[in-house]
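Two proteins follow. First one:
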Amino acid sequence: MRVFDLVKTPLRELNSALHTIARGRNDTNFEVVNPRGSHAVAVGIDQPVTVDVRGSVGYYCAGMNDGGTITVHGSAGPGVAQNMMSGTVIIEGDASQYAGATGRGGLLVIKGNAASRCGISMKGIDIVVHGNIGHMSAFMGQSGHLVVLGDAGDALGDSLYEAKLFVRGTVKSLGADCIEKEMRPEHLQKLAELLEKADVKDVRPEEFKRYGSARKLYNFNIDNADAY
């Protein structure tokens, strides 16, 4: 295991090391200590490496991840796992706003709460939040899944496309064109898979409600003008 102490080593050296691993090498385990809220930790990973960050991070941790497994043993600032392609990002604490924004694949697990705009413009990413999420989450969500074990704030799923939202707690309000939908067997099965991947125990898929697009905002329609 390679250990990077960000008190002694510039962040640039950590990210450079993560970007220059030769294909087929087996020294792919990294530990980051003393992150002290540093921004852009472990960004741009494009190989199946494992990174454990021992502390909280600032903006854009694990951005553009493509295949790595990154665990933050603390909380994360805005934009964690932004534009993720594949792999897994786990936040043991809370996440600030727009976690998982524009994510195209992979799994983001937030074991605490997530702030506003969680999953904004998601394009295939799966996000599981053990706690609550803030307002405007999944805004313009195009595909993927957002699973919330706690409550959701105002305007959930505003201007939603085809992303699927599952909330166990209460939803303060739904955004434009987002409605509650029937929970069919295929949704229960997919939800069970996501809960297992996110290490959620003693929670049943049947405890959730599903929300999705009413599909009335895909094209402008004068009858829906008040919803814009």
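Second one, unrelated to the first:
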Amino acid sequence: MTVSAQHKLSLRWGRRRLHREETALSTHRWRLTPWLFLLPALAVIVLLILLPFVNTLRLAFTDSTLLRGGEFIGWENFRRMFADERFGTALLNSTLYTVCVVPLMVALPLVLAALVSGAGRLMGFFRTTMYLPVIMSPVIVGLIWTNMLDKRGLVNELLGTLKVVTEPVAFLTDRWLLLFSAMFVTVWMGLGYYMVIYLAALANIDPSLYDAAAMDGAGPVRTFLHVTVPGVRSTMGLIGVLSSVAAFRVFGEIYVLTNGTGGVGGGDLTMTMLIQREGTGLQARTGYAGAISLVMFVILGGLLIAQLVLQRKQRTS
């Protein structure tokens, strides 16, 4: 083989090697590109969610306070918590809140969505009106309803004028009335939000199903029960999950209606309010608050898993 032939052969092999290296490099860069887009979101998740969760998990097993790092004490915080009457009250209130609010949040927005799903300016006006509470601050909403439910507020004045009651109703001082008043405010604020989700689901139902129901002589109620409800069943499950988490984590409504006291004697404390009380202030017991937060996390996790399993069984059946 001549020198020129060897030179050409080496050039050819060099080009092929360079091409393979460039191909590998471009493939490597292509694999890294999605991660570069995900990096900001992953950084936010790690810094604002994962690290605080790990820190809370660590604090739950210490006697940490606001001014002291604390030492490892094992399960002592959990023993103290289950013997604490305030924890039992908060768990009862949050559970009752969830049981009462979630069915209303699943059913009422669907009825509203079915009523205002038509076209026209009037329907658009009703949809906008129902959505207004969603964009309002919970504090502003709480202050509005605090004034309305006061002993000299609009509601009591109206009830007195209509001779329904002879003395003002203690909406903001009676333990159970205050709790159910807060539930009403929560439902009032959330109706518009879940209504919009249902409107999107209703738009995906095949119109021919409604035509078939009309030809069969089905009225509005039967059409709603046998066409609309089955068509949005998966959306109902989604709203059940979202509203369950929101109801169990309720804070703003109770806090504003009770002026931050948790009701008379703390009878209307919820889990999040108890965490806020124990975890803030100069006398904060961050370790104890972390233990309560961890129990709340386990309860919500179990609730979500149970709902997801139930939805899967309904789909398979």
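SUMMARY FIELD: The chain is about 75% helix and 0% strand. The radius of gyration is 29 Å.
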